[in-house]
Every structure is written in C-alpha cells, then in structure tokens.
Design goal:
Layout: E1 14-18, E2 63-65, H1 72-79, H2 83-89, E3 103-105, E4 132-135, E5 141-148, E6 155-165, E7 171-178, E8 183-184, E9 189-196, E10 205-215, E11 223-224, E12 226-235, E13 241-250, E14 258-268, E15 274-281, E16 291-299, E17 307-316
Antiparallel strand pairs: 1-17, 2-3, 4-5, 5-9, 6-7, 6-8, 6-10, 11-17, 12-13, 13-16, 14-15, 14-17
Length: 320
C-alpha cells in the first residue's frame, strides 16, 4: 500500500457514506494526520450563489501539474504521447528536477499544445473551508482545507494556495495544496492538505485560495468505472481514529485493466466539517470484473470523527 497523489483527469468514481457500525478490522494503514492542538476547526462555507461554467471564445492549452512521484515518462504515458514530444514542447524543463505543482504543456498530434474540449473564460467559483493547522512532533506544521463542488459537472485538477499569516495579516509562508484524487463529483467534498517543514514559521492564522479547477474532459478513455462495497469499520471511543475496509470492483464492461486504483476516505465532524483524510492505493492492477480488498485508517486533525465518506477512482492503462 502506498501514498498517492495524482494530476489531472477522472470521469467515473464510486462514493460511499459510512457511519458508526460494529465491526473489527485487523490492519490499520495510512495515517496521514498525526496532530495535536489545532488552531481552529474547519467549516465548509457554501457559495453565495450557484456556480456556473460559461464557455469562452477560445479553448485553453491543456496543462498538467506535476504531482508527487510522477516523472516525465509516466506523464507522457498517461496522455499517450512520446517522451520526446513532451520534452520538445517544454524545452525549459529539466527532466531530473521536476517539482510538485510544476506546469507542463501536453502536446497534440501536430506537436503543438493540445487544448481542452471545454473552453473556460470565467473561473469556476469555489469556496474553501477555514484552514486548520496543527504542529507536528518534529516542529513542522500540517494544514488542512476542503472544498465542495457546487456545480453540476465533474471537476478535475483542483489546487489551492495556503498562506500562513502573522498577527498583522501579513503572509509569512505559502504552500500549494493538491487534491488527493483527480475527480471532484458534483456535491462532493475534497480535502487538500499541505505540510510546512520544520522549523515552521510562527503564524496566528491561515487562509486558502483556489488556484485551479477545470471541467473534466475525455475521462471515459482515461478512467474505468468502479464500485465500492463497505465491509467493516471500527473507531476509537473519542473518535480520533476511524478505520474502514471493503472491496473495490472494476466494472466488467471496462475496456482493459486499471493502471492505478485509489480509495479516498474523508472524515467528517459533528458539524459536517472535514477533520482528516487518508488515501489507499492498490498494490495490484485489477482486470475488468476483478475486485481488490482495501482498508484505511483516518486520523482526526481536530474534532472527533462522526462519519467517513469514501471516493474511488481507477486510472486506465494508456492506449498505445
């Protein structure tokens, strides 16, 4: 089982809501938030009006934001382009020094930047929750925010900037937070977290602002349909940890095997605020119709966990 963060894409996802239920789980894995005293409890704020997506006069170039553990070769394979074509379109990129959040233009059939199928002239209005930060035992700082998709379309490529502020409201440090999954379905909530390495700067508050969010395009060729079946769940008496297990199944109608399968578990507090999350990645590449077992443990960043929601996605093997 491995940590996972991805870049763009996603069409089909499975969603499961979990609440208190008896059960026993033998394996506890993936403990993403190990924290002590939070600065504040996150609360999702709904947009003042329904978000809309308006087409613009021209399409925008398709840009991939580099994610953790990605290489130029894996990015090229994801979009079905050659490594040489990717390097040619991004001449200033050092293939040995990729950084998380670094933008890469994706080449089209003629070598120029491929454009998204849904042009966007106006930004998709998203409202992020209050940022909750907590110091780590090593002197670092973990910060968590969340966003709900208020639109009627699937969004992808979510990222946000988290700023640490001093007592005068001046920014003392910033970091970019990426969504742990590519997809944010309509009405669903996605957590985004960052880690400030020690020594963490002294700050009195933190704020989040959206950087990217795009309508998902051509996802049927890049992702496979998946379904989730919850098994057991167990949680601590104080609600500080919550472990769930179950089965993830690739649709029997899928065109081929999955190259990467992930399950996201999001913990919610009594006010329906996000208080922690964890990501599970399958060590196997299941074929159509096959199932894989998963188990995830979520640790609360602050308030006790009252329920856990699951999202899943399966990346298809790129066409040759």
């Amino acid at each position: 089982m491995r940590w996972a963060q991805l870049g763009l894409g996603l069409a089909l996802a499975a969603c499961v809501e979990l609440g208190p239920a008896p059960g026993a789980i033998t394996t506890a894995t993936l403990l993403p938030w190990r924290t002590t005293t939070p600065t504040s409890a996150p609360t999702l704020v709904q947009p003042s009006q329904e978000a809309t997506i308006e087409p613009g006069p021209s399409p925008t170039p398709l840009t991939h934001l580099v994610q953790a553990k990605e290489t130029l070769l894996t990015i090229a394979a994801q979009y079905g382009v050659t490594l040489d074509a990717l390097l040619l379109l991004n001449p200033d990129v050092n293939p040995n020094l990729l950084s998380i959040g670094q933008p890469l233009l994706i080449p089209g059939p003629e070598g120029g930047p491929i454009t998204s199928l849904v042009p966007t002239a106006t930004a998709i209005p998203l409202t992020f929750s209050t940022v909750t930060c907590s110091p780590t035992a090593t002197g670092g700082l973990t910060c968590l925010t969340a966003v709900r998709n208020p639109t009627k379309v699937v969004l992808e490529g979510l990222s946000a900037r988290i700023d640490l502020l001093d007592g005068q409201g001046e920014v003392v440090a910033s970091a970019v937070a990426f969504a742990p999954l590519n997809l944010l379905p309509p009405g669903e909530v996605m957590p985004l977290g960052v880690y400030f390495e020690p020594p963490a700067p002294a700050s009195s508050s933190a704020v989040a602002s959206g950087l990217t969010a795009f309508p998902a395009n051509e996802t049927e060729t890049r992702y496979l349909e998946v379904s989730l079946q919850k098994g057991g769940e167990v949680h601590s008496a104080q609600g500080s940890t919550w472990t769930v297990d179950g089965q993830l199944r690739i649709s029997a109608d899928a065109a081929g095997p999955a190259s990467r399968v992930l399950v996201l578990a999001v913990g919610f507090g009594s006010q329906d605020e996000v208080v922690g999350y964890a990501v599970w990645e399958s060590p196997e590449a299941p074929e159509p119709g096959e199932s894989v077992a998963f188990d995830i443990t979520v640790l609360s960043l602050g308030a006790p966990i009252e329920r856990v929601s699951l999202l899943a996605e399966a990346l298809a093997v790129p066409a040759s």
